[in-house]
Specification:
By secondary structure, the protein is an alpha+beta fold. The protein has five helices and eleven strands. It has helices spanning 4-12, 32-41, 132-144, 151-158, 163-172; strands at residues 15-16, 99-104, 107-112, 119-121, 124-126, 190-198, 202-211, 214-225, 228-231, 244-246, 253-254. Keywords: Membrane, Transmembrane, Transmembrane helix.
Amino acid sequence: MFTRRERQAGRSAGQSEEPGPYWKQRSWQVSAGFLGIVFVVGGIAALTSGPGDQDDRGSQVTVEGPLSGDPAPANGRPRGCRTDDSAGDALPEAAPKDVEWRPLGVSRVPVSGTAGPTRIEKNLWWCFAHTPTGAALAAHVIPSQMSGSGWRTVAGQQVVAGRGRDLFEFTRATVQDTDVPDGSTPVASYAGFTVTSYTTEAATVRLLMKTDQGYAATAIALRWSGGDWKVLPGEDGSLHSKVSTVQGPGGFVLWGS
């Protein structure tokens, strides 16, 4: 367990961002499992796979679902969504005690009965606590849903609308879907996280990945929108920051899985 001061120190030390095109960087090549996640959520995905159906690119069709309408007026959450928000704005010092790990796409993701996602409906894992821990879980789960054929539903419901989402959908449509059969062994794992900034309306979460050759990290920006956390893409359509190598897990809350 790390103190908040130790986590802040870890963010400024022991990490490096490699120069040059990031799909050629060592941190993008250290693990096939890591690539399996970040390539499908990064703007460079089109350069690593053949073109798909051109008519499917950048679909502007509104995806109907629990997060597409106005939240219920009683609690500001979509109908049927309940979470434990009692932690308030306190940054997590440790992983939730009730976390269990479930396969999702090419990875395993943390799921908490209190912090979310508390609703799992086929292609959509949603309803996260309105807390820093809820934001951290959303940062793990939402991008991990993007490798399979249900990615359009996820993008339409759990990515903030705008130019960034349009570019992500345009690029993602060129990449072949990867639907992993139930019972398959996940090929990527998350090692830890840190919430680097938080307000009730926005959060930034750094994710730590453990690979065969060391550690790598990337950041996910989120917004509170429509009564749940959603990923805020960059202007280039990327759902995460550039990947950087890190010396070790210092400064991160470790999952211990």
